[in-house]
Design brief:
This protein has about 150 residues and is an alpha+beta fold. The protein has helices at about 15-20, 70-75, 90-95; strands at about 1-5, 25, 35-40, 40-50, 55-60, 110-115, 120-125, 140. Helix content is about 15%, strand content about 25%.
Length: about 150
């Protein structure tokens, strides 16, 4: 399994978003990590993208839990594996992602790995929770995956 290099994130945001599908995120450490609070109670994690000075970030909405599942269940107080990381707040809670990680370079406590998994089909939709620009199909997900966050 190889670590995703920093240059991976220094590209077009929508391209990075699609190519992140199927990758493995490890919270232990290329762009930067942007962690913020929504609704006054849930942390969300983004990976910044684009060249320095250009705006862009990918919100990580869901992940498939593959390791440390018992610890995730404990953090989430949840026994249903398909409910551990199926939303941005859920995955941050399950993985122990906090605002103290905001601004870290990817690779420092948050790492993204590529194990060679090939996504068969990427689906798109408008972004969840966004009321403007509904014509922009900027939500990317693995078609048919039970790990995809629900609308």
């Amino acid at each position: 399994m190889k670590t995703i290099p920093p240059a991976f994130f220094n590209r077009n945001t929508t391209l990075v978003a699609q190519e992140l599908l199927g990758k493995i995120i490890s919270v232990n450490g290329y762009g930067h990590v942007y962690v913020y609070l929504i609704y006054g109670m849930y942390e969300c994690i983004n990976f910044t993208t684009e060249k320095v000075g250009e705006p862009g970030a990918v919100l990580i909405r869901a992940v498939k839990p593959i390791a440390g599942i018992e610890k995730m269940k404990s953090r989430r107080k949840c026994d249903k594996i398909d409910n551990l990381c199926s939303g941005p707040g859920k995955l941050c809670q399950a993985l122990g992602i906090t605002r103290e990680m905001n601004g870290l370079k990817i690779g420092n406590k948050v790492t993204v790995y590529d194990d060679g998994y090939v996504v068969k089909k990427i689906s798109t939709s408008s972004r969840i929770g966004i009321k403007d620009a509904l014509d922009l199909q900027w939500r990317f997900f693995v078609e048919g995956s039970k790990w995809t966050s629900k609308v």
